Structures are given as C-alpha cells and as structure tokens.
Amino acid sequence: MPAPIRLRELIRTIRTARTQAEEREMIQKECAAIRSSFREEDNTYRCRNVAKLLYMHMLGYPAHFGQLECLKLIASQKFTDKRIGYLGAMLLLDERQDVHLLMTNCIKNDLNHSTQFVQGLALCTLGCMGSSEMCRDLAGEVEKLLKTSNSYLRKKAALCAVHVIRKVPELMEMFLPATKNLLNEKNHGVLHTSVVLLTEMCERSPDMLAHFRKNEKLVPQLVRILKNLIMSGYSPEHDVSGISDPFLQVRILRLLRILGRNDDDSSEAMNDILAQVATNTETSKNVGNAILYETVLTIMDIKSESGLRVLAINILGRFLLNNDKNIRYVALTSLLKTVQTDHNAVQRHRSTIVDCLKDLDVSIKRRAMELSFALVNGNNVRGMMKELLYFLDSCEPEFKADCASGIFLAAEKYAPSKRWHIDTIMRVLTTAGSYVRDDAVPNLIQLITNSVEMHAYTVQRLYKAILGDYSQQPLVQVAAWCIGEYGDLLVSGQCEEEEPIQVTEDEVLDILESVLISNMSTSVTRGYALTAIMKLSTRFTCTVNRIKKVVSIYGSSIDVELQQRAVEYNALFKKYDHMRSALLERMPVMEKMTTNGPTEIVQTNGETEPAPLETKPPPSGSQPASQANDLLDLLGGNDITPVIPTAPTSKPASAGGELLDLLGDINLTGAPAAAPPTASVPQISQPPFLLDGLSSQPLFNDITAGIPSITAYSKNGLKIEFTFERSNTNPSVTVITIQASNSTELDMTDFVFQAAVPKTFQLQLLSPSSSIVPAFNTGTITQVIKVLNPQKQQLRMRIKLTYNHKGSAMQDLAEVNNFPPQSWQ
Predict the structure, then answer these.
(1) Average pLDDT, integer, range 488-513
(2) pLDDT > 90: what percent of the chain?
(3) Please, which pLDDT band fits residue 681 given cuts at 50, 70 and 90?
(4) How confident is the model at residue 720, as a pLDDT?
(5) Residue 798: phi, psi to the nearest 5?
(6) Mean pLDDT of 586-607
(7) Which segments constitute the GAE domain (predicted)?
C-alpha cells in the first residue's frame, strides 16, 4: 500500500477546491483511505492519519471513527504519537462517550512519567475533558504534581485542579494544603494559575472563602504581589504595552473583589493598593483600560471608602471620552449599575452621558438613554427632559417606545408643574404618538381631568395639535376625548395661559367628523370621535341637529363597534332625551389608585368612563367553546374548571347557570353534591349577585380594613396580591381585587389571569386594567374577582398565569389556600 499523503499536502489540495462539492469529494476520498489504513493496523502512518483526521474535524466533517486510534497513539511510547493522540482525545472525545474511560490508566501512567512534557500532555488532557469519574481516580496524582518544584508542571497541575474542583467539588479540601505555598512562587505562570485556582475555590465554597480571609491571610499576599507588579521596572518577559503582566493583575483584582465583598477588614486592607492601581496605570493603551476597568469593578463591589468610589466613577467618566466604542459601552453599563448607590458622583458626568445619546452605535445609545433616565431628578428634570425629547425626535423607531415610556414616568414623578407635565406628554404624543404604549392615553386623560385649572389651555393646545394631521393616533384619541369633555371651553375662548383662539361650534364638529372619515383613524379612534360628538350635544347649543344627523349616519356603519355606539346614542336622543344631559355630564376628578368601591374607572371600547361594577366581556372578546374546554385541561385536575369572565345577556336563561356554576358536578371539598346547574339560574325578578348593590345604599361596607391582604403568588419577579371587600347588600359576596406587580427590569406583556374555584362557589372575573405589567414595580395591573359563597365554606382557588417576558411565553399554575377567615366567614 502506498504511503499516505502528508498533512501539509492534504491542506494544500483541499484549498485548491473551487466548490463545496469538490471539497467534500476530496475529503470523502481521503477518509476512505484513512479507514483502510486503520483496518490494516498500519502503525507506521497512524500518527499522520490521525493528524489529517483532526484537520478534517476542524473543517466540520465527521471524524468519530478515529477515536480508538487516538487511544492507541496515547498508549505508544513515542512522544510524537502521544502528542497527536492526546490532541485527538481532547478534540474527538468527551465525557458523554464511554470510550474516554479507556484512557484513564494511560493518563495515570503518564502523570507519573519521567519526562515533564509527557506529564504536561496528560495534565492538559485531564484538565480539558476529564469526567467526574476520571477526576476522582486521578485527583491524587494531580495533587502530588501541584506540590512539585517544577514550575512547568505546577502551573499545569493548578489548572487541572480547577477542572477537578468543577467536576467534583467535594475534592476541594484535598488541594488546600498545596495552595499554601503557591503564591510564594516567583514564576508568573504559576502565580497566574494559582490565583485562578484560589478564585475557583473561593467562589464555590463559603467555608473556603472564610478560611482564606482569616487563616491564610490571603489579602496581604495578593496586595504584595500586585504592588510588586506596579512598582517593578521594565521586564521584557512580562511587559505588554509598557505594563507588567496585565493578565496577572486582572486575575488578582478579581480575586480581591471576591475576598473583599461584604468584609470590612479585607476591604480596608486593599483600599490603598486599589488607589495606587487606579492612579498609576497608564490609560493610553487598551491594556491599561482593562486593568482600570477591573479596578473599578473591585472598588464598587467591596466596602470601599467614599473617596475611592468617587475615583472609580471618575475613571468611568474618562472612559466615556474614549474613542473606542467598546470602552464607552462598558463605562455606561458600569455607571448604570452604580447610579443608585453613588447618584451624586455619577451626576457630575451627566453632560458626557447625554452626549452619548448622539452616538452612532445603537447599543451605546440605548445604554446612554437608560442611564439618562436614571439621572433625572427634581433639580434637573427640565434640562434632562429637553435633551431626551430631542433624542426622541431623532432616534431610531426601536428606541421610541422605551424612550416615550421613560419620559412619561419621569414627568409623572418629577414634574415641576401641571402645565409643564401636560406640555411634555403632549410633545411626546406629537413626536412619537404611534409608538407609545397603550396605557399612555388613559394616563394622560386622567392627568388632564385632575388638572381642573388647565382644561381650557389643554383643549386649545390639543385642538391646534390635530388640525389637519391625524397620523398620531394616541394624540388624536386624547384630543377627541378632551374636545368632547371641554368643547364649551374651546368655543368660549376663555384660555388665560395663552392667547385664546376663536373657534365656532361647526369648526369643532368639522374636525371630529374628519377624524371619523380619515383613513388613518383606527376603530378605537373613531369610537373616541363619535363619543366626543355625542358629548358635545350637551355642550353646544346651535349644532344639536347636526350632531343627531352625524350619529344617525353611523348607525349603519360596517364597523360593528361604531355601529353599536351610534345605535345606542340614537336611542338616547329619541327615547331617553330627558336623561341625556345627566348621562353626558362632565367627568369628575379621577383618583390615581382606584379600588372596587361603588364605581371604578373601566375602559370599554376605548372610552374611559366611570361605570358601576358590572359584568363585562373580556377585552379580547368571547372565545369559542372549544378554547374554553382547552383551558379546563390546562388548569388540571378533575375537580377544577376555569371561570371564563363573561356573562352575555344574549344567551338563553338555561345557560346562565352554566356560566355561574362552571365547576359542574365536581365537588372539591367533599361536601354533598349541589343541585344541577339550572337550579342556580337567577329569576328575572331577582338580579344575579353580580349586579347586587345597584340600589341607593353603598355597595360595600366600611370595615374592610379588618380583612388582611395576602400574597397569592410570588415567583420570577411577578407578585400577585389579593385584597378583600364584603358586600353590604349580599354578605355572601366577597370581592377580591388582585394587584399584579413586576420587579424585573423588563415589562411583562399579554398578561392574563384566570381562576377556578370548587363547585360550591360561584365566581366571576371582571376585565383587567391592562395587559402589561410594568417593570421595576412602577405600576400594577388590577382586576376584580367576585365570589359568591352562600354556604360560608373555606375559600380555595386555583389560578393560572400566562404572559410574555424577555421574548418567551411564560405559564404557571398555583393554588391559593391561605384566604383569611374574615373573607369567607
């Protein structure tokens, strides 16, 4: 058989291939020749063939058939064969294949070999791919080599010990005696690997960390080594861009960070050396910046002095002026982590941070935006909002939603005046109206409603903002709502804050009719406009007939939502005209945090109005029966069914019991089976319990402070709290208000809460206040649950939560059994 081609010739041949198919053909031909050579037990060229196989493996072609040949090379007495064999084992084998156990004895023999280079090969292989079984068998040999005087073997043994500790943490104490003298070594390679080993031991075991802090006095040794590195002169062997062994310095700084965390004595011992590193390190080269960055992280993580922390933040401030984008990004990320603890120090670099908003790099721009919002306070809110509004005007679309939300939150928290607050939010809606989140419109409407003295000014500003431009739908919705509420103030021209404009009733109606027929208007916006026109029938005096005509036209609209509104408004004109002025009177001041008292702020069909607590369909519309049955399976258990929040009046009376007694014949508590579902159908003369309380007396009693709230769910940053109220008119009714909050850094979207109770109860869910749970606990979702408990049994509930978070769909089930006795007795 002719001699196989050399590796160099194979590489040259493969590189001449013009297409992928031609390369595959060459590889397949060579693999066939290598297989034939392996079958013939050709010892002469085994090393060459395995080397070629490894090259093919690096190109992505299968090479598993060479695994046993690697073991044969490892067992060879030649160093050249062992070198290729161990390299092949590291590339082709891992602990998932049982073949690797066959080489345990070979590695053990080589660890005791007389040649240091063979020992080094065995250490490298064990440290790279040794399984937990191999590590247990060979840990003793590694520990012996860790105590040897040979620097070449000690550094490899230290790294191998790191791998052994990761695979078998209980063997950590075996290496403890060997670590005592490691830091006295002068060889930088041994020092570097020793610090890596000590770091691994400290991170994995709190007991080891305490031992090194107190018994071994590790911090003074590390401080001494670091000081020698800083103060030593030029050493060509370790110099990198004028800095002595920056890799070792970085490793020592990381270990100091672990040792100093939450420990006053250790932190005190390293304060001086950290100050020296921060002031003596050259910043003109990237090497120096790497050391300074690690120094900053260490200062921020230990219990350092305030002056040292200011020095660290100033270093990050200098990083922001660096031309390297990576360094600027690192600085912004680090400042964002420290802004809560060292706010004033970070504030000194506010102008530099704001300048980063103009950076071309989108990642730097995003970090700068997040940091800018973190720096906003009552003293700088005007200047910062000016910069952020300018950024909102010019930034890419992917930034607009987050930027607008941040401006809304900052303006609400730090607004110097209500006029400034309203102007700022209107500027956001004008600039990025299509990108703002759904809760922006009701929040602004609430702000305007509560600012009684600003009504005339606001409606005039909004009227001018939408003249001829209906592209920003949230702005148009707010404007339509305000014109409907305060149209009389707009026409009267009673604005004191700025020069009033002269507007006639017909001109106002022209604008709203234009919104109705505009192609840019969404269904929700048209609903706002039609309702606003209807409200103006009680604000205007000369155009009532025109309003009647407009409303009647949309009674035949193809938009079902718009048609329903128009039909109801027509009925209001014809049958209930005596009630129209009372029904359409001006909105009262809204409370910021609503509770389920006699009235609550509910959002129906895009219109925010006060309404009595009543049965409402879910926001997403009713679902088919098959989807409801799917939900039964998802909630699990044969004795639980979910309650779907719907009570349509169009269903026959026989179905009412099915909606109110959704748990059927299953009894979770073991009590005797109740009557069939039809028995719970309310009679026409007696309204169902969900509508109880629409009489003149208060809906709920005033002793709810005696019912403690509970935490029903707390997991993955999502927290669900239940608060309770009892009905005056029907003591068997318990009203539970859920509040969902989110402590993570990202919003939870598409949030859906579902609940199920045993069959002896009746339950109804009202619509939630939103489908987005804001991040950082900046807001909550509220939803009302009504439970009828006629037998006064202990309340039990199973809940199901679904939402999207960080791009993933989340789903969880939980059971709530800790209801306070006052809520059901």
Answers:
(1) 81
(2) 30
(3) very low
(4) 93
(5) -115, 130
(6) 49
(7) 705-820
Instruction: Supply 487's token pair.
Output: 């149209």
Q: Work out whether the CA dihedral 297, 300, 305, 311 comes out positive or negative.
A: positive
CA distances from 46 to 32, 59, 85 (A): 14, 20, 10
Please state, in angstroms and rounded to a whole number, the distance separating the CA atoms of residues 609 and 618: 17
- Tokens 């390293």 belong to 270
Q: What is the mean pLDDT of the chain?
A: 81
The tokens for 335 are: 């400042």
Please report the pLDDT score of residue 191 as a whole number.
92
Quickly list DSSP for 20-48.
HHHHHHHHHHHHHHHHHHHHTT-SSSHHH
- Of 213, 226, 236, the C-alpha closest to 273 is 226
CA 527 to each of CA 65, 478, 530, 531, 588: distance values in angstroms, whole numbers, following the listed order: 71, 12, 5, 6, 21
pLDDT at 200 over 70: yes
Cβ atoms of 611 and 604 within 8 Å: the answer is yes
Q: Which residues pair with 809 in a beta bridge?
A: 804
- At 288, the amino acid letter reads G
Contact 90, 129 (CB under 8 A): yes
Strands 718-726 and 733-742: antiparallel
Answer whether 270's CB lies under 8 Å from 256's CB: yes
CB-CB neighbours of 382 under 10 Å: 13
Residue type, 300: M
User: Lowest-confidence range among 2-16, 328-342, 487-501?
Assistant: 487-501
Instruction: List residues bridging with 738 in a β-sheet.
Output: 722, 783
Q: Can you tell me the distance from the alpha carbon of 418 to that of 613, in angstroms, rounded to the nearest whole number? A: 31
Name the one residue in this structure whose structure tokens are 């200062």.
299
Q: Check residues 768 and 668 and name the one with the higher pLDDT.
A: 768
Residues 6+ apart with CB under 8 A from 231: none
Specify whether the CB–CB gap between 11 and 39 falls below 8 A. Answer: no
CA distances to 650, 681, 683, 696, 766 from 615, in Å: 13, 16, 17, 19, 7
Q: What is the C-alpha separation between 179 and 500, in angstroms, rounded?
A: 82
Query: Mean of the pLDDT values across residues 258-270?
Result: 89
Instruction: Compute the C-alpha angle 694/696/698, nearest 5°.
Output: 80
Query: Would you call 675 helix, strand, or coil by DSSP?
Result: coil
Element holding 244 (H helix, E strand) = strand 243-244
342 versus 634: the higher-pLDDT residue is 342
DSSP H stretches of helix in 93-217: 104-111, 116-129, 132-146, 151-167, 188-204, 206-214
Structure tokens at 752: 């859906």
Q: Are 773 and 781 in contact (CB under 8 A)?
A: yes
Which whole number is the average pLDDT over 672-680? 35
- Give CA–CA dist 84/645, Å, rounded: 69
Residue 458 near residue 448, CB atoms below 8 Å: yes
For residues 92, 97, 99, 105, the Cα torsion angle rounded to the nearest 10 degrees is 90
Q: Which amino acid is at 183?
A: L
User: Does residue 803 contact residue 773 with C-beta atoms inside 8 Å?
Assistant: yes
Residue among 175, 182, 173 at smallest CA distance from 149: 182
Residue 802 main-chain phi, psi, to 5 deg: -130, 140
Number of continuous H segments (helices) and E segments (strands) in the chain? 33, 12
Token pair for 529? 């406009």
- Cα separation of 81 and 170, whole Å? 35
DSSP 683: P
Residue 746 has what DSSP assignment? S
Query: Can you tell me the distance from the alpha carbon of 138 to that of 155, in angstroms, rounded to the nearest whole number?
Result: 17
**Can you tell me which residue has the tokens 């507007």?**
503
What are all long-range contacts of 621-625, with beta carbons under 8 Å and residues at least 24 apart?
622/646, 622/648
Banded model confidence at residue 592, pLDDT cuts 50, 70, 90: low
- Weakest-pLDDT range from 495-504, 538-547, 808-817: 495-504
Q: What does the alpha-carbon distance between residue 582 and residue 152 come to, in Å, rounded to a whole number?
A: 92
Q: Residues 6 or more apart from 583 whose CB is under 8 A from it?
A: 572, 576
pLDDT for 497: 62
